[in-house]
Design goal:
homodimer; 112 residues; alpha+beta; Gyrase A, domain 2; four-stranded antiparallel sheet; 4 helices
Chain lengths: 112, 112
């Protein structure tokens, strides 16, 4: 488990600092397989592939349970063969360290 | 329960007939709140709003269970406050009657 995965989300206020591009380029290296995307808002995205729909559902539920525990909720796209997870911080309309923490936790869930 | 919701999906072959635009304009009236979208492939889309994340998760699971039972799998987008469900038939890259049947069943799940 890396340092990010062992961290917990802090409360994200509307004036919380966004992760800078320099910080993001360092943090992204700690979360295998995640990509920075920008659809007007900077986000973290990763696709997880599964050979059974049942496994996709289980993974979706585990990520959703972790999200509820951290009180930080991603977009989870469940479909045949894959689950796509997208993290960002709604309140600051961008990336907070919380998103990298939750991406690392999502990776851990996929490995269990 | 309307006729669509009481139907079951039939096996969708690669040469199965797409629903025509005329048929779609009739069938769409039977599935409250669903919209026809076209992102290169014609699809049915509806957003379901929930006041708790737990309710969103429960709905996601119920729709996924129905999908598995019908062996027809939608895109389900789970996020804070809402679940978006998108039905289309991958094999024919468009809309089959199965999609309208599953949209009607999704409405029934949301009402239970």
């Amino acid at each position: 488990m890396n340092d990010l995965a062992a961290s917990s989300c802090e409360a994200c206020r509307i004036d919380a600092p966004m992760v800078s591009d320099d910080e993001a380029s360092v943090l992204i290296k700690e979360i295998e397989g995640w990509h920075l995307i920008n659809d007007g808002v900077k986000k973290l995205k990763k696709e997880f592939n599964f050979s059974s729909y049942s496994d996709s559902k289980d993974f979706t539920n585990k990520v959703a349970d972790m999200a509820d525990q951290e009180d930080h909720h991603p977009q989870i796209i469940l479909e045949w063969g894959k689950v796509t997870v997208i993290w960002w911080s709604h309140k600051i309309k961008g990336l907070h360290k919380n998103d990298f923490i939750c991406a690392a936790k999502t990776n851990n869930i996929s490995k269990n």
